[in-house]
């Protein structure tokens, strides 16, 4: 029996349908995608909670019902009656997907306002999972509060699992993003970066450079995802390369990294060795990118 708490923002997704001008409403968001897959992979003896803040409106209630129906623990979710949830619209322009976001005032931005709430959420957790997007949407003092709560969890033996998920558009400037990401990696036990983004914003020459940067900052375990190319892992001084799963035709890469993280983490929670966990992550991601959408049902 373990308890994992995934922390972040779930948004309403409006995705185009075959009928021009008609959209399908759904729910998605990087940490929620990972929580959703994790719930599907782990047995009922393992608890997976989602922690965020929602509004008091109908859209928020629908999101809460969706999370609950997915089997996620929602008991700690905070309700802010003066806010609502964030939303994004996917537009198709000549087959290319583009995204527009309305999330500046979302309730999720307030998720780390209260130290007592954070302590209650993380009490007795075995794993806390969050991302650079979780950090980016918080005011600076709330980021520090969340980090403090995670440091306390680590001191009690909890695993702090962090995907840097670099999104410069959500930060006030790229240097703030780099500083906050590195400070957070330093308090994490498992860091799950994607090399392509890291190369762009940290100028890493290869996945090994990405892994060593986070390891040097203090993370004992770093798994560097790398699209269709070989991944690199650092684990308490042990280094290795790993091939991704073979994919015949890529349909939609949405949630490749999020699903990889879930497959990896489910294996780690199940007590499997690191190389097995990487291959479980790669297997799940390869299935997800061969279907449309962020949340792909696995039979
Ligand atoms: P992100 O979605 O965060 O940008 P990546 O593109 O690095 O992350 O993909 C995450 C993981 O998904 C990869 O490490 C790999 O295991 C799998 N993956 C992504 N694209 C492919 C691909 N074209 N072929 C096989 N595996 C892939």
From TrEMBL:
Keywords from the UniProt entry: Kinase, Transferase
CDD domains (UniProt xref): KdgK
Keyword rRNA processing among record annotations: no
Origin superkingdom: Bacteria
Molecular function as annotated in GO: 2-dehydro-3-deoxygluconokinase activity
Carbohydrate kinase PfkB domain boundaries: 1-294
Stored SUPFAM superfamilies: Ribokinase-like (SSF53613)
GO cellular component: cytosol
Protein known as: 2-keto-3-deoxygluconate kinase
Organism expressing this protein natively: Yoonia rosea
């Amino acid at each position: 029996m373990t308890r994992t708490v995934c922390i972040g923002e779930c948004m309403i997704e409006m995705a185009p349908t075959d009928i021009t001008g008609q959209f399908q409403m759904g729910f998605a968001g990087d940490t929620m995608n990972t929580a959703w897959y994790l719930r599907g992979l782990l047995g009922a003896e393992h608890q997976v909670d989602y922690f965020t803040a929602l509004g008091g409106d109908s859209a928020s209630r629908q999101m809460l019902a969706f999370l609950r129906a997915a089997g996620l623990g929602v008991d700690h979710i905070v309700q802010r009656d003066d806010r609502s949830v964030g939303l994004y619209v996917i537009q198709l322009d000549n087959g290319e997907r583009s995204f527009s976001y309305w999330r500046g005032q979302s309730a999720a931005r307030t998720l780390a306002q209260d130290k007592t709430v954070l302590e209650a959420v993380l009490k007795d957790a075995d794993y806390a999972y969050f991302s650079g997007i979780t950090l980016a949407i918080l005011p600076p003092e709330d980021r520090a509060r969340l980090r403090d709560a995670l440091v306390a969890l680590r001191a009690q033996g909890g695993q702090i699992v962090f995907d840097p998920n670099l999104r410069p558009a959500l930060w006030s400037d790229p240097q703030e993003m780099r500083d906050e990401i590195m400070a957070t990696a330093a308090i994490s036990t498992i860091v799950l970066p994607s090399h392509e983004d890291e190369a762009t914003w940290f100028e890493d020459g290869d996945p090994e450079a990405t892994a060593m940067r986070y390891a040097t900052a203090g993370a004992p375990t770093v798994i560097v995802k790398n699209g269709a190319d070989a991944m690199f892992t650092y684990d308490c001084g042990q280094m290795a390369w790993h091939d991704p799963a073979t994919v015949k035709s890529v349909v939609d890469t949405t949630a490749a990294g999020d699903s990889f993280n879930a497959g990896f983490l489910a294996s780690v929670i199940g007590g499997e060795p690191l190389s097995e966990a990487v291959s479980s992550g790669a297997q799940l991601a390869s299935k997800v990118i061969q279907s449309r959408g962020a949340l792909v049902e696995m039979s």
